[in-house]
C-alpha cells in the first residue's frame, strides 16, 4: 500500500520511447514529392544519404522513409539555423527536408522531459537521432536492409545502424543514473525499457512496432562493426560525460562525477552497547559485569555469614543476652522509644485513628451515608463519559514533534489518503510447503469477479448510496487510481482475451514503464511490486499473492470522512460474507482491511472480553467473601461468614472507580480502554488487601472489650500502614500525570484519584460496614439475611470459632520457622541477588514496540491481514521530506540547495536523498525522491520545447497532443492547428544560469502544477504534484510548505519502523543543519512510533519519580531514612525482576507495559509496607517479631493480595484478546509471584541478616549492654529494615 502515491503521478505521460525512433522517418508533406517506384542503388560515401524523404505511411498513420540514395542537400540559412538549434553537430549539407525535420523535432520532444535534467545525457541522446535523420554522411553508417512496397511506392522496412561501442557505452554511462523524479526511478526504465547496458538499450530501441502500437515503423539493427569489404564507417561522434564541466549533470544523475564526492549519509541509530568475545561466545559487557559482580558479592556474603555463624557458636551467651534485650516490654523498647520520639507523624496517626475509631464506632450510619454520598456525587459526571479510541489521541501527546509535523503536513499539503486493501494468495502445498504462483488466467478472472462485486458496493450514508467512484482518489477526475494487476487490462474483463491474457500481464511486468498497452486505466504505469506479493527479486511471475489497493480521498476531521467510513463498512461486510467464501472455494486465501478497520476492531475488543473480565472479578469476589470470614464450621458458617461484607467491600471499590471516572469525565477528560480494563483490577488489588487487613485486625482484638475499643485499637494497629501504603500509591500514580504520553498520563490521573477514593471509603464506609457486621454477628443474625436471627444457643460456638486461621497457623508454624534457618537465609539472599543482577544484565534486551496483532481480538480478520502484510508486501510506506519556507527568489540559494539537476549543489537535499537510497539497509530510504522542483525547472527549460509554451497573447499553451491543440477525435494531431504559433516560454537568454527570475517562477509555477502530463510533455505537474506545493501566500517569494516524495524500504517488525523513523530524523537534522533550511521527514506511521524513540526515558523517569515519591512519604511517616531506603530497594528489585521476566516472556516495552510497571509499584508497596509496619510495632526477639509480623500481616497480605490476584489473573488467560493474555495475565501473574516472594520471603530474611550484622558490629566495638539498650536495638533495626524492604 505504501507504493500507491507514486503510481498516480505519471498520467498520460508515458508513450514508449520507441516512438522517437520514427522521428527520422516522418514528414508531413514530402510523400507527394516522391512518386518513383524504383530503388536507387545504395552508395556509401561522404555527403550521401541512405534514405531521404517520405514515400508512404502505414495503416496506423506512421510515415515511412524512402530508400533513396542521393547526395546530401544544402539547406537554406533559416533551415540550417533550425537544425543547429537541435543538432549542433550537423552543419553544411543535410539528409532531411525541412518539413521532415519539423516532425522530427516534435517527436523528439517526447524524450526531452525525461532527460533534460542531465544536459550531457540529453545531448548524447539527441545526437544519436540527429545523425540518424539528418547527417550529411548518413550512408557511411546507415544501410537499408529491407524494403516494403506501400501504395505502389518502395519504403524502408529495415536498416542497419552502425555505431561504435565507444559511443554506445558513453551514451549509456551518461544516462544510466538519470532520475525521472515523477516516478522515483531511473529515466532509462522509460526510454530504454530498463536496459542494463547499451546493447540492451539499442535492442529495445530497434524493435519494429506492430500496427497501432507505439514504436518504430521498421526494424533497426544496431551494429558496432561494418563489413570488411565495405567503405562504411561506424558513427562515432564524441560523447559527453555526465561529469563534463560544460554539460555536467547533477550528483543525483551522475554520482560518479569527481565533484560529487560527499560524505556518506548519516547511518541510523547504532547500538552503543559494548560486547566482549570469549572464545566463540559473544557476551555483552553489562552481562559479564553483572556476573563478576555477583561472584564477588556472593563470595563476600557467604564469607561474612560463615564468620558470623562461628562467632555465634563460640559465644552462646550472646543469644540469651540478645533475647533478653529484645524481650523487654514494648513501652521500654529502644525501637518503640525511637519511633515515638522521632516519628511525630506516626504518633499523630495513632492518636487520630484512636479518636476516629471511637467516633465512627458510635456513628457508623452517619459515616457510611456521608462517604457514599460524596463518591456518588463525583460519579454523577459519568453522564459526560466518553471513551477515546483514536490511536493518535492515545499514544501521542499534543506537543509531540510527530503530532505537530502531521498537523503541518495535513493543513499545508494534503492528508495521506485512506487505504482499503485486499490480499489474495495461494495456499502452500502441505508436502513441499511452497506456495504455487498466483499469476494464472483462472486467478486473474477470479480477481475480475471480485472487482465487479467491489464496484457494486453501495454504502449507506444518511439514506444515500456511496459507491467507490464517489470517494476514490482520481488524479485527473476520471478513473480511480486502483492499484491492481487488472490495470494492465484497463480494469476491463472484456480486454483480457484481446490483450493476450496472462502473457500480456507477464509482458507488462517487464515493460510497465515503456509500453502504452501496459498503462493503467488512469493513464499511469503500475509497478508490479505494488500489486504482487510473495516473490523474490524481480521474479514477478513467481508471485504468490495479488495485492489490490483502493486509495480513497482523506480529509481533516472525522466528520468529513463519514461517507468513506460508510463505504468501508460495506466493503468489510462484502469481504466477510461473499468474497471470503468465493476465494476459499478456489483453494486460495483472502485477507482484507479498510482505513477504519483498526478503530472498529478496537471498539469491538472493548466488549469482546467483558465475560472474561466479569468472571475474573466474580472469582475474586467469591474468594474475598470466603477469606474475610472465620474458620468455617457447618453449624455457624451462616453467621461467621462475611459474604455480605465482602460484597459491600467490592461495591465500594467499584464506587471509587466510578467516582474517579465521573470526576474526570465532568472535566471533559475522555477515558481509555486501559482505564476501563486495568484500574478496576488495580483498585480491587489495593482495596481487597486493605479490607483483609482491617477485618483481620478487628478479629485479633480481645473479645472482652467493647466494640468501640476493638475498632479503635484495630485502626491504631493498621491505620498508619494503610495510610502509608495508600499515600505512596497515590503519589506514585500522581507523578504519572506529568508524562507526555496521553495513555499513561490519563491512566495515572484516574488511578491516583481512584486509589485515593478507595482509601477514603475503606477507612470510612468499610469500617462502618465492619461495625455493622460485628453487631450482626454478635446478635446471631444470618449473613446476607441480617433480618433473620438464629437462637442464642449458637453464640458460644460462634465466639469459640475465632481462633487463628489456616494462613495464620501456616505463617507462624511453617513459613517463619523455615525462614529462620541459617542455610535458608544464605540461599534466599543469594538467589534473590542473582535474580536482580540477572535482570539488570538482560534488561537492555527488552524490545520496544507494540505489535498490532496483540491489541486486536484473536478472532479478528485483521490478524490474517497483518500476517499477509509481513509475508507478501514488497514495498515500504511513503516517505515525505517536507521543506518549510522555501525562498525561490533568484537571489536566494535555496533552489540550488534543494534541486538535483544540472547546476544544483552537490550536497543538495535531493542529491543527498539519492545518495542515501544507495544504502537502504542503513538509511531505510528505498528510492530517490520525486521532485516537483526538478521537474518544474526541466519543464521551464527551453530544451523542453514541448512543455512550457505560450500563445501570442502570453497565455498558457498546452502540448500539441492536448486540447485545444489536438482533439480526442483526431488520430494524429496536426501541427498546423490552433497551437501552431505557440512558442516556448523562455529562451536561454531569458534565464539566469538556466534559472527563472523571481517573477518568472511566480508566474509559471501555477502553470506547471495545472499542466497535464502527456506524451509530448511528461513533466506536467498535474496529478503528480497537485498537493506537493502549498501555494498560499507564495506570491511573497516564499513557499510555506512543499514536499519531496520517496519510499521507505519494506518494514516488517516494530524495530524496523522505529529505526526507520530514527534514521529519517537524523538524516533530516543533518541536512537541515548543513543547508540552514527547515526540513523534516513525514510518514503516516511516524505519529504512532515516535513514542518508542524515548520510551525508555519516559518509563525510567516515571518509575524513578514514583519511587522517589514513595521514599518521601515513607520518610515523613517513619522518620527513618534507612527504613525508607530499604523499602525503595525492595521496590526496585521487584521492578528489575519484572522487567527481566518481560524479556524472558517476549513482552515489549510500550505504553501498556509502562502503565503496568507503574501499577506494579502500587501493588508492590502493599507487599512491603504492611509487613514492615507490623514488624516495627511487634515485640520480642527478632525471631518472635518476624513470626508475629508474618502471622498477622503476612496472612493478610498473602490472602488479600497474592491469592486474590492469582485466582483473578488465572481467569484472564482465557481472554479472546491477545493483549489481555500477554500484558495482563502474564505480567500480572509475574508481578504477584515476584511481589509475594520479595515481601514474604526476601524481606524478613534481609532484616534478620542486617540485625545480626548490627549485633556483630556492636560486639566488635565492645559496646556494653546498657549502651546497646540506649541505641537502636537489634529488633529496632530489624523493624526498620523490614519496613524498607
From TrEMBL:
Chain coiled-coil ranges: none
Pfam families, alphabetized: NPC1_MLD, NPC1_N, Sterol-sensing
Boundaries of every SSD domain copy: 609-772
Keyword hit for Thylakoid: no
Family affiliation: Belongs to the patched family.
Stated name of the protein: Niemann-Pick C1 protein-like
Cited SUPFAM superfamilies: Multidrug efflux transporter AcrB transmembrane domain (SSF82866)
Membrane-spanning residues: 288-307, 366-383, 610-631, 643-667, 673-698, 718-740, 746-772, 819-842, 1095-1118, 1125-1147, 1153-1176, 1197-1217, 1223-1243
Signal peptide bounds: 1-23
Keyword terms of this UniProt record: Cholesterol metabolism, Disulfide bond, Glycoprotein, Lipid metabolism, Membrane, Signal, Steroid metabolism, Sterol metabolism, Transmembrane, Transmembrane helix, Transport
Keyword Amino-acid biosynthesis recorded: no
Membrane topology (UniProt): Multi-pass membrane protein
Subcellular location, record wording: Endomembrane system
Amino acid at each position: 500500500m505504501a507504493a500507491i502515491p507514486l503510481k498516480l503521478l505519471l498520467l498520460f505521460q508515458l508513450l514508449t520511447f520507441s516512438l522517437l525512433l520514427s522521428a527520422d522517418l516522418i514528414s508531413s508533406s514530402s510523400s507527394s514529392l516522391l512518386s518513383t517506384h524504383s530503388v536507387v542503388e545504395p552508395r556509401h560515401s561522404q555527403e550521401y544519404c541512405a534514405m531521404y524523404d517520405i514515400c508512404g505511411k502505414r495503416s496506423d498513420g506512421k510515415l515511412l522513409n524512402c530508400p533513396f540514395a542521393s547526395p546530401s542537400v544544402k539547406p537554406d540559412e533559416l533551415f540550417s539555423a533550425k537544425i543547429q538549434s537541435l543538432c549542433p553537430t550537423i552543419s553544411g549539407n543535410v539528409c532531411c527536408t525541412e518539413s521532415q525535420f519539423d516532425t522530427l523535432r516534435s517527436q523528439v520532444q517526447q524524450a526531452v522531459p525525461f532527460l533534460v535534467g542531465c544536459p550531457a545525457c540529453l545531448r548524447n541522446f539527441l545526437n544519436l537521432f540527429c545523425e540518424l535523420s539528418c547527417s550529411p554522411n548518413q550512408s557511411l553508417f546507415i544501410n537499408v536492409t529491407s524494403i516494403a512496397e506501400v501504395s505502389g511506392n518502395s519504403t524502408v522496412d529495415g536498416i542497419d545502424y552502425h555505431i561504435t561501442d565507444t559511443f554506445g557505452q558513453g551514451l549509456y554511462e551518461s544516462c544510466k543514473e538519470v532520475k525521472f523524479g515523477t516516478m522515483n526511478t531511473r529515466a532509462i526504465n522509460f526510454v530504454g525499457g530498463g536496459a542494463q547496458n547499451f546493447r540492451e538499450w539499442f535492442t529495445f530501441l530497434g524493435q519494429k512496432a506492430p500496427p497501432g502500437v507505439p514504436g518504430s515503423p521498421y526494424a533497426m539493427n544496431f551494429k558496432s562493426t561494418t563489413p570488411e569489404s565495405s567503405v562504411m564507417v561506424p558513427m562515432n561522434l564524441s560523447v559527453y560525460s555526465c561529469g563534463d564541466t560544460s554539460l555536467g549533470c547533477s550528483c543525483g544523475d551522475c554520482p560518479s562525477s569527481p565533484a560529487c564526492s560527499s560524505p556518506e549519509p548519516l547511518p541510523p541509530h547504532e547500538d552503543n552497547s559494548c560486547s566482549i568475545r570469549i572464545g566463540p561466545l559473544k557476551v555483552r559487557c553489562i552481562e559479564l559485569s553483572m556476573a563478576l559482580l555477583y561472584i564477588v558479592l556472593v563470595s563476600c556474603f557467604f564469607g561474612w555469614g560463615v564468620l558470623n555463624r562461628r562467632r555465634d557458636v563460640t559465644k552462646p551467651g550472646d543469644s540469651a543476652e540478645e533475647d533478653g534485650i529484645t524481650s523487654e516490654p514494648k513501652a521500654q523498647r529502644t525501637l518503640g522509644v525511637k519511633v515515638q520520639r522521632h516519628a511525630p507523624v506516626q504518633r499523630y496517626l495513632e492518636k487520630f485513628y484512636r479518636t476516629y475509631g471511637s467516633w465512627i464506632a458510635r456513628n457508623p450510619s452517619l459515616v457510611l451515608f456521608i462517604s457514599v454520598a460524596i463518591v456518588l456525587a463525583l460519579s454523577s459526571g459519568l453522564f459526560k463519559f466518553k471513551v477515546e479510541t483514536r490511536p493518535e489521541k492515545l499514544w501521542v501527546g499534543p506537543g509531540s514533534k510527530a503530532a505537530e509535523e502531521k498537523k503541518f503536513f495535513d493543513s499545508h499539503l494534503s492528508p495521506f489518503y485512506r487505504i482499503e486493501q485486499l490480499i489474495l494468495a495461494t495456499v502452500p502445498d502441505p508436502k513441499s510447503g511452497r506456495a504455487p504462483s498466483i499469476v494464472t488466467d483462472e486467478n486473474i478472472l477470479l480477481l475480475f469477479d471480485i472487482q465487479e462485486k467491489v464496484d457494486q458496493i453501495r454504502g449507506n450514508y444518511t439514506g444515500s448510496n456511496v459507491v467507490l467512484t464517489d470517494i476514490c482518489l482520481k488524479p485527473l477526475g476520471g478513473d480511480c487510481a486502483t492499484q491492481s494487476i487488472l490495470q494492465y487490462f484497463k480494469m476491463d474483463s472484456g480486454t483480457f482475451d484481446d490483450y493476450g491474457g496472462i502473457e500480456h500481464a507477464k509482458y507488462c511486468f517487464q515493460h510497465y514503464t515503456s509500453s502504452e498497452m501496459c498503462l493503467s486505466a488512469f493513464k499511469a504505469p503500475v509497478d508490479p511490486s505494488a500489486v504482487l506479493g510473495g516473490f523474490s527479486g524481480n521474479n514477478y511471475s513467481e508471485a504468490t499473492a495479488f495485492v489490490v489497493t483502493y486509495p480513497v480521498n482523506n480529509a481533516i476531521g472525522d466528520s468529513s470522512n463519514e461517507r468513506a467510513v460508510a463505504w468501508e463498512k460495506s466493503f468489510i461486510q462484502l469481504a466477510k460474507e461473499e468474497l471470503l467464501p468465493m476465494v476459499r472455494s478456489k483453494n486460495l486465501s483472502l485477507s482484507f482491511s479498510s482505513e477504519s478497520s483498526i478503530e472498529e476492531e478496537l471498539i469491538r475488543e472493548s466488549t469482546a472480553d467483558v465475560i472474561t473480565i466479569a468472571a475474573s472479578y466474580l472469582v475474586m469476589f467469591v474468594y474475598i467473601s470466603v477469606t474475610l470470614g472465620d474458620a468455617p464450621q457447618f453449624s455457624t458458617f451462616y453467621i461467621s461468614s462475611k459474604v455480605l461484607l465482602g460484597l459491600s467491600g467490592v461495591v465500594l471499590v467499584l464506587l471509587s472507580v466510578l467516582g474517579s471516572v465521573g470526576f474526570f469525565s465532568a472535566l471533559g477528560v475522555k477515558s481509555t480502554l486501559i482505564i476501563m480494563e486495568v484500574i478496576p483490577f488495580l483498585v480491587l488489588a489495593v482495596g481487597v488487601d486493605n479490607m483483609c487487613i482491617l477485618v483481620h485486625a478487628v478479629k485479633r482484638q480481645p473479645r472482652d472489650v467493647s466494640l468501640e475499643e476493638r475498632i479503635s485499637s484495630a485502626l491504631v494497629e493498621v491505620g498508619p500502614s494503610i495510610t502509608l501504603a495508600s499515600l505512596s500509591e497515590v503519589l506514585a500514580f500522581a507523578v504519572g500525570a506529568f508524562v507526555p504520553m496521553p495513555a499513561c498520563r490519563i491512566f495515572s490521573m484516574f488511578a491516583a484519584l481512584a486509589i485515593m477514593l478507595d482509601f477514603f471509603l475503606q477507612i470510612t464506609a468499610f469500617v462502618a460496614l465492619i461495625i455493622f457486621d460485628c453487631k450482626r454477628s454478635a446478635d446471631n443474625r444470618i449473613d446476607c439475611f441480617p433480618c433473620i436471627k438464629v437462637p442464642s444457643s449458637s453464640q458460644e460456638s460462634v465466639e469459640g470459632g475465632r481462633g487463628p486461621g489456616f494462613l495464620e497457623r501456616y505463617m507462624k508454624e511453617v513459613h517463619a520457622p523455615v525462614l529462620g534457618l541459617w542455610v535458608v537465609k544464605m540461599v534466599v539472599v543469594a538467589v534473590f541477588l542473582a535474580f536482580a543482577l540477572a535482570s539488570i544484565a538482560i534488561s537492555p534486551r527488552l524490545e520496544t514496540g507494540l505489535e498490532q496483532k496483540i491489541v486486536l481480538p484473536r478472532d479478528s480478520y485483521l490478524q490474517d491481514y497483518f500476517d499477509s502484510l509481513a509475508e507478501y508486501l514488497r514495498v515500504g510506506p511513503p516517505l515525505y521530506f517536507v521543506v518549510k519556507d522555501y525562498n525561490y527568489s533568484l537571489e536566494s540559494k535555496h533552489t540550488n540547495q534543494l534541486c538535483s539537476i544540472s547546476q544544483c549543489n552537490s550536497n543538495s537535499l535531493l542529491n543527498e536523498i539519492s545518495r542515501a537510497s544507495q544504502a537502504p539497509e542503513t538509511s531505510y530510504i528505498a528510492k530517490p525522491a520525486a521532485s516537483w522542483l526538478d521537474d518544474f525547472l526541466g519543464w521551464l527549460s527551453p530544451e523542453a520545447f514541448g512543455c512550457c509554451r505560450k500563445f501570442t497573447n502570453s497565455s498558457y499553451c498546452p502540448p500539441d497532443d492536448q486540447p485545444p491543440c489536438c482533439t480526442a477525435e483526431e488520430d494524429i494531431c496536426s501541427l498546423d492547428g490552433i497551437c501552431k504559433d505557440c512558442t516556448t516560454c523562455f529562451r536561454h537568454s531569458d534565464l539566469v544560469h538556466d534559472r527563472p527570475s523571481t517573477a518568472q517562477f511566480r508566474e509559471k509555477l501555477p502553470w506547471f502544477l495545472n499542466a497535464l502530463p502527456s506524451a509530448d510533455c511528461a513533466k506536467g505537474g498535474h496529478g503528480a504534484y497537485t498537493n506537493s506545493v502549498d501555494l498560499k501566500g507564495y506570491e511573497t517569494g516564499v513557499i510555506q510548505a512543499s514536499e519531496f516524495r520517496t519510499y521507505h524500504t519494506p518494514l516488517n517488525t516494530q524495530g524496523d519502523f522505529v529505526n526507520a523513523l530514527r534514521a529519517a530524523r537524523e538524516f533530516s537534522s543533518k541536512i537541515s543543519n548543513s543547508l540552514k533550511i527547515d526540513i523534516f521527514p513525514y510518514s503516516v506511521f511516524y505519529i504512532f512510533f515516535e513514542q518508542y524513540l524515548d520510551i525508555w526515558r519516559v518509563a525510567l523517569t516515571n518509575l524513578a519519580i514514583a519511587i522517589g515519591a514513595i521514599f518521601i512519604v515513607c520518610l515523613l511517616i517513619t522518620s527513618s531514612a534507612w527504613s525508607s531506603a530499604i523499602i525503595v530497594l525492595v521496590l526496585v528489585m521487584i521492578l528489575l525482576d519484572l522487567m527481566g521476566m518481560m524479556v524472558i516472556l517476549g513482552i515489549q516495552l510500550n505504553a501498556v507495559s509502562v502503565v503496568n510497571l507503574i501499577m506494579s509499584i502500587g501493588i508492590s508497596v502493599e507487599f512491603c509496607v504492611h509487613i514492615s509496619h507490623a514488624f516495627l510495632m511487634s515485640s520480642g526477639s527478632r525471631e518472635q517479631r518476624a513470626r508475629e509480623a508474618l502471622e498477622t500481616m503476612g496472612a493478610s497480605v498473602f490472602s488479600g493480595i497474592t491469592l486474590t490476584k492469582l485466582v483473578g489473573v488465572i481467569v484472564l488467560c482465557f481472554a479472546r484478546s491477545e493483549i489481555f493474555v500477554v500484558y495482563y495475565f502474564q505480567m500480572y501473574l509475574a508481578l504477584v509471584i515476584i511481589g509475594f516472594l520479595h515481601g514474604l520471603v526476601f524481606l524478613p530474611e534481609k532484616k534478620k541478616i542486617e540485625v545480626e550484622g548490627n549485633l556483630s558490629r556492636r560486639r566488635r566495638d565492645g559496646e556494653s549492654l546498657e549502651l546497646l539498650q540506649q541505641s537502636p536495638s537489634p529488633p529496632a533495626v530489624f523493624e526498620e529494615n523490614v519496613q524498607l524492604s
